[in-house]
Amino acid sequence: MWAALEPVGRSSHTGGYRRFAWTREDHDLREWFAGECASRGLDLTEDRMGNQWAWWGDPDGATAAGHAGVVTGSHLDSVPDGGAFDGPLGVVSALAAVDALRDKDFQPSRPIGIVNFVDEEGARFGVACAGSRVITGAMTARRARSLTDADGTTMAEALEAAGRDPHAIGRDDETLRRIGAFVELHVEQGRGLVDLDHQVAVASDIWPHGRWRLDFPGEANHAGTTRLEDRQDAMLGYAGAVLAAREAATTHGCVATIGKVSVVPGGVNAIPSAVTGWLDARGSSPRAVRRAVADVSSMVEQAGGTVAEESWTPSTPFDSELTARLQTRLGGIPVLGTGAGHDAGILANAGIATAMLFVRNPTGVSHSPAEHAEVADCLAGVEALTTVLEDLAGEPT
Ligand SMILES: [Zn+2]
């Protein structure tokens, strides 16, 4: 499975991946997923947002009988120049865990589902976990449709170009009802497991996090003939915001990043008439994050700019009972918090019993071509997930 996924959307220059929602690469990945599910005889369905769900067993019959399914999986899309593991490791491990259960003739008493969430990274339209946000109602269909990518294409247009009906998207209670428990396996995006010398951990919570759009107005003019005192250079305010974000994060004990910027007109010899930057801020304490963003906002406003909140996700604790059950069943593995958002967090916020497993990342690097996990650790992850599915789907509740 890993070898089949390896070339899809991979840059020959950097080795990084560009797998954005509703693109050719995304289409190929969805086809790959459908093929893997078909070859296992799993029933594939799509929800209103196009997330793919493959079922071993009848999810509706079980839900009616009060035994909703046990679901695992993750996403196949990537950030710009992303790594191979963030997302695909969870999907591939889910398929491998089903194979392992079948090899041992396991008969689930609750249906087991595997999901491939669409548009988890938000790399194209700016909102992370768009697939799970829309089906849980955390983002309205109307807002999703109007999100715009860097080329000015709206999500509605992208959906149409991918052969889908943008007006069919929306909250999907029928799909949500089928999920009795959700366990997402993911490569760790930090060095917690390296420090603890373990291969696999269970997640405690996701830090609160958000994204803000910072707009700075200016006036385009000639870079050679315009005197310094006559300039309205949008870049100056933006530069101040970058430094302010770093300082605010240090002061309040959280993390803040401005990793995306757009400059108009974007000419070497033109004074910028508009600069837009995107601020990402997270931390274990929501108060600290809010304070840091307030500091940046006041700086932006002093520079004549504006700040708009694009997303805010509160601190997300995973289901304590489910997490404790996984930890016990897996021999007392470590419990770690994370600063990264996941579809698992969106489902947890929607009231679904949700947990996560992390697989050791030797460098802690992620969202980069250098993201890595050793094969032995990946296999330990599959084994852990297999144990978890066997436990959760093994006994009628
Ligand atoms: Zn991910």
Feature tags:
397 residues, alpha/beta, 9-stranded mixed β-sheet, 4-stranded antiparallel β-sheet, 14 helices, globular, binds zinc ion
Short description:
The protein is an alpha/beta fold and 397 residues long. The chain has helices at 2-5, 24-39, 59-64, 88-103, 130-136, 141-146, 155-161, 173-177, 192-196, 234-252, 286-302, 320-329, 343-349, 375-394, and strands at residues 43-46, 52-56, 69-75, 112-117, 179-187, 200-206, 209-217, 221-222, 255-264, 270-271, 274-282, 306-313, 316-317, 335-338, 353-359.
Give a written overview of the molecule.
The protein is built from 14 helices and 15 strands. By secondary structure, it is α/β, with parallel strands linked by helices. The strands form 3 sheets. Strands 1, 2, 3, 4, 5, 6, 13, 14 and 15 form a 9-stranded mixed beta sheet that branches. α4 (88-103) links the parallel β3 and β4 (112-117). It is globular. The mean pLDDT is 95. The structure holds zinc ion (ZN).
Structural class: alpha/beta
Strands, total number:
15
Morphology: globular
N-end to C-end Cα span = 33 Å
Order of helices and strands: HHEEHEHEHHHHEHEEEHEEEHEEHEHEH
Low-confidence stretches: none
Heterogens: zinc ion
Largest β sheet strand count, sense and barrel closure? 9 strands, mixed
* Share in β-strands: 15-25%
Structure annotation, total helices: 14
Radius of gyration: 22 Å
Helix proportion of residues, in percent? 25-40%
Task: Provide the residue-averaged pLDDT.
Answer: 95
